[in-house]
Amino acid sequence: MAIEIINTKNAPAPIGPYNQSVKAGNFLFVSGQIPLDPISMELVNKTVDEETHQVFKNILAILKEAGATLDNVVKVTVFLSDMSLFAQVNEIYGSYFTKNEPARECVAVKTLPKNVNVEISVTAYLD
């Protein structure tokens, strides 16, 4: 199985020893995205709504670089800083996935990178 690293300048550069995404066969594994602006590498975090939209902008840029869209996403993992944010994030999440919603889990964790409130990773199937 061929493995291909897929990165784009239209999403934040990794802040550690990893890539934005890895294509393995027909699957694309997108690393967890936090609300970093890809140009300034500054956090976009005035509100949890703003954070969530920026995370999706980053995911969309990576998917586009791989020739995919949200329609290709089969699995999503959502990490929250607190489960009290679930309804707010879930509402925004639902505005991005409007049909054939992927499998998903959502968990609250003690701390996320750079103390953000939202991190999301996705797995896409490329046919």
UniProtKB/TrEMBL annotation:
Give the molecular function GO annotations: deaminase activity
Q: Which domain of life is it from?
A: Bacteria
The cross-references to InterPro entries, in alphabetical order and at most eight, read: RidA, RutC-like_sf, YjgF/YER057c/UK114
What's one GO-annotated cellular component? cytosol
Pfam families in the record: Ribonuc_L-PSP
Checking CDD domains in the record gives:
YjgF_YER057c_UK114_family
Annotated family:
Belongs to the RutC family.
Q: NCBIfam families given for it?
A: Rid family detoxifying hydrolase
Q: Which PANTHER family match?
A: 2-IMINOBUTANOATE/2-IMINOPROPANOATE DEAMINASE RIDA, 2-IMINOBUTANOATE_2-IMINOPROPANOATE DEAMINASE
Q: What is this protein called?
A: RidA family protein
Q: What species is this protein from? A: Rhizosphaericola mali
